[in-house]
Every structure is written in structure tokens, then in C-alpha cells.
Amino acid sequence: MIAEVAPAATAADAAARKEEVEQSTENWSNLLTDRWMKVYSGMEIRILVTRRRPVLTGLTGLAVRPRLLSEEIYSTLRNAIIEERLPPGMKIVEERLASELGVSRIPLREALHKLERDGFVESLAHRGFRVASFSETDIRQIYEIREFLEVPAAVKAMDKLRKTGFGPLEEALEAMRESVTTNEPVRIVGQHVRFHQIIYKAGDNPRLVEMLGPFMELGFTYRVARRAGINGWDDFLNAHQRLIDVLRDGSPDDVRTEMIAHLRLGQRTSLSVLTG
């Protein structure tokens, strides 16, 4: 028996193969596709769905890693919580939410755990998650912890700020003023976090910065910012100006006293807005 030998690829075959490869590469190059997904009560949220780009030979060092799907889910749900489209105390049914977002439960669970670490959702023993809600006791405890950590941090930061200058703090305060004028609650919170992080970082204690981060950007801080309104911000802005002034010109005891007053004003404001 004589074995049959496969004929060599013709020019037409090669051209067809080349076209197939080019088409495949073109399809993969479309990394992000906009989809409109429904989340609870018929509301619609725009979510970017990430696809993985193939690594091309010779360009490995230049390959761009797309954002993970879990990060997109995190961002979508975080924004919905901030805007109170997912209200405090709402039970999150993972199976239903995964179906409505069109994702698997693995990246959804990753996003929910990150939201839990950042204080936006709470885990329920063997029953999933719910949107975090904060009682008066919770808020008092949060500010008690902040006072314990932030007062000595401000005193420690005083000397370095006097050497490096107060420009970044003044810029953050000006950005807060602009955000109040334009009524942008999310930006107000972002600049407020930036203001305090400048102080923490001046104390040269990275662990303290890491510890305080979650307390600055909890879900209830956004709700306070959304509900306070433009007329409720005068005391807030003036308190930050006083803090800059005392860090620039005051004694350590002055800084300690002003920071305590600053945090207690924040606590009173939070309690009045959330329980009023």
C-alpha cells in the first residue's frame, strides 16, 4: 500500500489562513464593549465588560493589561451605593445580581468582598451581603477611633508641613470649596480624603495612612455629602481653614485641640444628617 501524501498548501489556502488570522486579531482588539445591565428595581447601570487581549510575539513588554471584570463590578456597585440607588440595608442576592449583570458569581464575589473591606457592604453569616447601614453607635465608634489615631498624627506632621509648605493642603481645600459651589458630593469626599491624607503622610507613618484610609471613605460619608446641601458646608470649610492655620502657626497643644474639635464637628454633622 502506498501512503497518500497531503498536497502542499496552495497560495489560495495561505491567503485564506492569513485572512482568518487577521480577522481573529481584529476581533480580539476590541477590548471594551459597552453594555446596559439592569440592577434591582429596573434601574440601569452602564458597565464596561473587559476582554483579554492576546499577547503578540515581540510586544510582550508593551502589552496593556485590561482591568479585571471584578474591578468593573466593584466600581458599578460602589457608585450605585454612593448614589443610594442601592439603599442602606438592602439585601444583595448574589445569584440574581450575577444574572442581571451578566457575569459569573466568582468576579461578583470578589467585588463584594472588596466592597466589604471598604465599608460599603456587610456580610451576613451564611446569608450573603447587604448594603452597609450605620447606626449612631457605629458613627460614634468610628470617630472615636479617628480621634485616637488622627490627633497625634497631626501633631507629628506639624514640623514637616512647616518645612515643606502648605500648598498641597490649600489646593485641596480650594478644590473642596469649588466642589461645594458646584454641588459635587463625590468630589467633595475625594478632596476631603486628599486633605487629610496629606497630613497623615507628613507624619512619615505609612501604616497609619493605610489604617485610616477605610475610615475616611465609608459609605455614610458620601450620604452625608449628598444630603448636607450647599448651605451646610460653611462650618466644614471653615474648620479645614482653621486646621491649616493652626498647623502653620500654632503650638502642639493648639494642633491637638483643633484636631479634636475638627473631628467632633464631623461627628455631629454626620449624626445630624443621618438621623435627622
CATH topology type of the largest domain? Four Helix Bundle (Hemerythrin (Met), subunit A)
The counted number of beta strands is 5
Strand order of the largest sheet: 3-5-4
- The gross shape turns out to be elongated
**CATH class categorisation of the largest domain:** Mainly Alpha
Summing up helix and strand content along with how strands pair, one would put the structural category as mainly alpha
The CATH architecture of the largest domain comes to Up-down Bundle
Q: How many distinct domains?
A: 2
Q: Summarize model confidence as the mean pLDDT.
A: 76
CATH superfamily of the largest domain: GntR ligand-binding domain-like
Poorly predicted sequence stretches spanning 5 or more consecutive residues: 1-9, 20-66
What is Rg?
A: 26 Å
